[in-house]
Amino acid sequence: MQRLLPEPGPTTVEEQLDGYRPWEHPHDDRPYVAMNFAATVDGRAAISGVSGPIGSDADTAMLAGLRTRFDAVMIGAGTMRAERYGRLAPSPEGRERRERVGLPHDPLMVIVSGRLDLPWDAPLFSEGGRVLIFTSSEADPPETATALRIVRHEGSVDLAAALAHLRRERGIRALLCEGGPHLHGQLEAADLVDDLFLTTAPKLVGGGAPRIVEGELPRIVPLELSWLLEEGGELFARYSRR
Ligand SMILES: NC(=O)c1ccc[n+]([C@@H]2O[C@H](COP(=O)([O-])OP(=O)(O)OC[C@H]3O[C@@H](n4cnc5c(N)ncnc54)[C@H](OP(=O)(O)O)[C@@H]3O)[C@@H](O)[C@H]2O)c1
Questions:
Q1: By CB distance 3.0 to 4.6 Å, which of 105, 195, 196, 205 could disulfide with 239?
Q2: Residue 65 class from Cβ within 10 Å (0-12 exposed, 13-18 middle, 19+ buried)?
């Protein structure tokens, strides 16, 4: 992997993320929030309904590396239904590594859902770890082997209030949001995002798959390019909100 910006030279995912310590920069009323997406050159965020075929092994390594830098990971229900997540820190070594840098052994997995129509047979709900669901549904979830907390909002989930809850009630200092596009759009519209990690895969897919932001934004969001890496023609950018 090579760094193109700011200082060109060889690098690795580990080296690049080593100095990235988002947990040291929480806001008073919410965690530091970073988004992560992979997209094709024509801007599509899914191939055949999932994100896996977009990026290479280097993209997977970047995502795994990013997860080691955050207290919690958040996704929308659409992403959970499509991607069927498992435990975020599956290996004991990975959990020990997290604890060594002062992070909780398992990142808190946060899901935002209106209808609570989730794939309850997905590995996330049986493999252990910790899950917190913000929902506007009054339905009760089934019994799960993984510890599950539910926080209910009326009407729809108020994302600013949800982030405030994570900061104040759960001690979350840094949150990695892995999408999807509808959740991302709302977070950007409410000015709740600090960083955007975007992998651009050298592929064109056409069709009508979602882009990384779906829904209206009330204004153009200006971004600053903080770094740009390359491996095998794939680009790994970190943008920060100006
Ligand atoms: N390329 C990538 O990096 C990447 C990353 C993530 C996802 N994806 C792809 O994106 C697609 C899914 O897109 P999506 O936009 O549907 O995903 P999404 O944003 O994860 O999910 C949307 C759903 O989240 C819930 N939700 C979001 N905001 C809410 C709020 N304020 N209050 C209550 N519920 C809320 C709703 O769930 P309910 O339906 O339960 O009401 C809504 O239908 C999949 O194909 C996935 O593979 C790609």
A1: 196
A2: middle
Q: Ligand 1 centroid vs 1 CA: distance in angstroms? A: 31
Alpha carbon of 130 to ligand 1 centroid (Å): 20
Rounded distance between C-alpha atoms, residue 66 and residue 237, angstroms = 13
Question: From the CB of 199, is ligand 1 less than 6 Å away?
Answer: no
Dig out the tokens for 127 from the structure: 């493999």
Q: Where are the alpha helices (DSSP H) in 84-157?
A: 92-100
Query: How far is the centre of ligand 1, averaged over its atoms, from the C-alpha of 81 (Å)?
Result: 8
Residues 6+ apart with CB under 8 A from 33: 163, 174, 175, 177, 187, 192, 193, 194, 195
* Interatomic CA distance for residues 13 and 24, integer angstroms: 20
CA 84 to chain centre: 14
In the chain, what is the greatest distance between 2 CA atoms, to the nearest angstrom?
53
pLDDT digits 0-9 by tens, 140-189: 999 999 999 999 999 999 999 999 999 999 999 999 999 999 999 999 99
The pTM assigned to this predicted structure is 0.98
